[in-house]
Amino acid sequence: MRRRTSRLPVRRAQRGIVLVFALITLVIMLIGAVAISRSMNSSQLGIGNIGFKRDLSNQSERAIQAAMSAVRAGGALADLHARNSNLPAANYSAVLLPSNPQGIPLALLGSDTVFSTVGNAANDVVLSDLGIKIRYVVDRLSTNTGNCSPSTCTMLNDMVYGGPATELISAQNNSAAPNNPNPSAVTPQAVFRVTVRVTGPRNTLSFYQSNFTAN
């Protein structure tokens, strides 16, 4: 008779190389997930800061409009003689204010005590619901108080054409001059500068400047 023998499976030693590769893959995936998460957070933070800056830029228009309205009809600086002297009650200086190398008046960089020498904190625009505070100063681009002249002030010297196309009418040909051949000459105008400091949420701080004339 033939004897039947059964073959038992031979057990091989398990080395676990697949597990090592699986762990390495898992670590790489975790690192990638962390990197993506940090990138998304940085992007959201950057977008948020840009949004704050843009909003502060829009809010600064409030102060610029207030400054321009002050020198227009009905404003505190509407009268020419009023603009020849400093008027802290209207945040106005008849001479160019000391500034840092970036052109920002030092009065807006210092404390409230420093600012009080050239302006009035009561003129600040405070938007408490938005967490925004707007402060501004207006200074005339002049080296001296008193009446403006081209030697002491930065003057707007517009040039226009009148009459024949070859006739140039400039502010130098003042219509008040005797025997002036160009009665429609443009009158020189002093230039004013308004600087705005806007403090927003998350200690966001922005500065804006604009130049304008009284007319």
**What is the overall number of helices?**
2
Largest sheet: 6 strands, mixed
Strand content: 15-25%
Task: Indicate the radius of gyration in whole angstroms.
Answer: 35 Å
Q: Termini separation (Å)?
A: 127 Å
Overall geometric form: elongated
Structural class designation = alpha+beta
What keyword list fits this structure?
alpha+beta; 215 residues; single chain; 2 helices; elongated
Short description:
With 215 residues, this protein is α+β, with helices and mostly antiparallel strands. The chain has helices at 17-71, 112-115; strands spanning 92-93, 125-127, 132-140, 155-156, 159-161, 168-170, 189-199, 205-213.
